[in-house]
Amino acid sequence: MTDPPRVLIADDQALVRTGFSMILSATGIEVVAEVADGAEAVGAVRRTRPDVVLMDIQMPGMDGLEATRRILSGAAGPPRVIMLTTFDLDRYVYAALTAGASGFLLKDVSPEHLVAAVRLVRSGDALLAPSITRRLVERFAARDDRDAALHRDLSPLTSRELEVLQRLARGLSNAELARELRLSEATVKTHVARILSKLDLRDRAQAIIVAYETGLIVPGQP
Q1: What pLDDT is stored for residue 140 in this prediction?
Q2: Which InterPro entries does UniProt cross-reference here (predicted)?
Q3: Nearest to 103 by CA among 87, 86, 117, 116
Q4: Element (H, E) at 7
Q5: What is the pLDDT of residue 115?
Q6: Domains located in the chain, CATH noted
Q7: Which helix (H) or strand (E) holds 180?
Q8: pLDDT, tens digit, 9 for 90 and up, residues 163-191
């Protein structure tokens, strides 16, 4: 049986930290540290080696975006990072995803969704709030760091894997992908794993970014 995720919470609001910690702890998820800014988060990750970091985007001193870059750059077996934001169109979220964050949550998330999100991101099996993330990507994909990634080579992907990537980038879950492509969920998971491996991506969040940056998906296209 898989051990419960170990979580670090980084947020400058004490009530948010306490509330999230109580929700997670009540379900058996271990909260290994609570910190109030990005610099503390970087140090605490090195000390406690959590599986998942809940990272506020806007904090005094070092913000969550810079902290995410430092945590994920060059680390062996880095944690998954979930960005926390107050608004669902925060202009920093696209940059956070390109930095390697696995997704994001609104701070008014329900307890059930918070727990599910931590477990899902720890497994790397699903993207959080795909419809909201897709809107963010569509809004900012044409602006932030687009030119740097335009020439990523998709040629290693088979035609079926390209189909899966297109639909994944539109926010479909594994179950929805399976229904639409008339495949089993196990086959869909295999295709997704191969896509991530061939393109050297951490998770589905980065796969969505690549789909937009390479023009496989055009922002606003139905």
Answers
A1: 56
A2: CheY-like_superfamily, NreC/VraR/RcsB-like_REC, Sig_transdc_resp-reg_receiver, Tscrpt_reg_LuxR_C, WalR-like
A3: 117
A4: strand 6-10
A5: 94
A6: 6-140 (3.40.50.2300), 149-213 (1.10.10.10)
A7: helix 174-181
A8: 999 988 877 878 889 999 999 999 999 99
Please give the structure tokens belonging to residue 169.
């980038």
Amino acid, res. 21: S
Q: How far is 183 from 176, CA to CA, in rounded Å? A: 10
Give the span between the Cα atoms of 215 and 157, in whole angstroms: 15
Q: Which residue has the tokens 């998709």?
A: 154
Identity of the amino acid at 4: P
User: How long is the chain?
Assistant: 222
The DSSP line for 40-70 is HHHHHHHHH--SEEEEESS-SSS-HHHHHHH
> Closest Cα partner for 141 from 63, 72, 210?
210
Whether residue 7 is predicted with pLDDT greater than 90 in this model: the reply is yes
Residue-wise pLDDT for 16-54, tens only, equals 999 999 999 999 999 999 999 999 999 999 999 999 999
**Alpha carbons 69 and 88: distance in angstroms, whole number:** 21
Q: Are 21 and 9 in contact (CB under 8 A)?
A: yes
Q: Compute the chain's Rg from CA coordinates.
A: 17
Q: Which residues contact 177 (CB under 8 A, 6 or more apart)?
A: 164, 167, 168, 183, 188
Distances 30 to 4, 36, 44, 72, 208 between C-alpha atoms, Å: 7, 18, 15, 21, 30
Distance CA 165, CA 157 (A): 9
pLDDT digits 0-9 by tens, 94-121? 777 777 888 778 888 899 989 988 998 8
pLDDT of residue 127: 54
Q: How far apart are alpha carbons 56 and 101 in whole angstroms?
A: 12
